[in-house]
Amino acid sequence: MITNASLNVQSALDWLITSGVQDSEGGFYAWYDAGRKEYSFLYPEVTGYAIQLLIKLHLHDGSQYRAEAVKAGDWLLNNQNNDGSFFCRRFGKLEITPEDNSFYTFDAGVIVCALLDLYKLTLNKKYFASALKTLNLIITLQNPDGSLNAARTWDKRIVCNPHWSQTSSCHHLKLMLPLLKAYKLTSNKKYWTSAKKLLNWGLKLQLPSGRFINFQGTDKTYTHAHCYATEGLLASLKGLDKKTASLIKVRIDKSIEWLFSFQNSDGSFYNWNTPRPERLKVSESLSQALRLFLLTTKHESLQRKIGNSVDFGFSFLKQMQIFGTDKYAHGGISYGMAKDERLRDVSTCATIFALDAALMKEQGQTSPLFEEII
User: Fold this and answer.
1) Total-model pTM
2) Cβ 212 vs Cβ 225: under 8 Å
3) Looking at the domain covering 9-371, what would its CATH class be?
4) Comparing 131-140, 302-311, 351-360, which segment has the lowest mean pLDDT?
5) In the beta sheet, which residues pair with residue 186?
6) Domain ranges of the chain
7) Nearest CA to 357 among 263, 286, 309, 266?
8) CA 338 to mean position of chain CA atoms
9) Contact (CB, 8 A) for 139 and 189
């Protein structure tokens, strides 16, 4: 059993595996609404994150998690379209299940990472083939300047709206992970070239302060997207040439410095850098920031600041873990806090990221498994 004083890891793992947030067919729901006592929608992107965490756990202690990872991977394959695309969301458990059939490039990149990890675990080529089919589709949606179109509708119209998730945004930098993973496995230069073009474009969205704006034409930052961009930079260090890696280290430090400056005194992070009606203290971004802090402890320029930020962050995160008589919520992590009140939604993504952060804190010095971003 893996334990951690910063979070009740076992309860969070039990929620992820046994609460029902993983559907009987293998997919994961985005969240559980403890007020309405119902799940939201099946979410391929979150299923990808769950697979990556489950594989880490299996490789760490050889426990039950392999079966859940394979089940989730097979669910993804069963819901992949012939061109490599995936629906964005599926609602409900009825015989006729309404779907959002839009294909989001970011979500697909997460899925590709999961399928490639499953291939490395099982050596089953079906995961490898499916991953490359999806990744090749993503590349067709890359623009000449290196940016990625955010999404494509079921009838193949490009989605482009002034919203962080529906336009070419800084969070797409994280797609360097699947591109560089594929390059490592195939030696196909097109994946490396695509990653380098994406990097060169994405760096233009970082301000001198280190903060990533969401997209060209705005000055606003969604903390979740900023962390995704930084995760992409951090993961790219091992896959790019030394000259570029040296530049990226500077950019990472600046990004982390901005996160330090933006962290609240209680350890939390707001989801937006400017006051907005929907601004919340969010567990998802906090867990991402904690992972980034823990993964940059070796950066001499940051060492002195990291300790307190990590401790404060986990202190707030512990408040977001839900305990009680509702077995469908017990152990999971709330989406966050609004006006000093914890929200009822138990977030699958926040729970996965919180688990990953807690395990990095506990195992990071002894297990290289917990030194990689999911």
Assistant:
1) 0.95
2) yes
3) mainly alpha
4) 302-311
5) none
6) 9-371
7) 286
8) 22
9) no
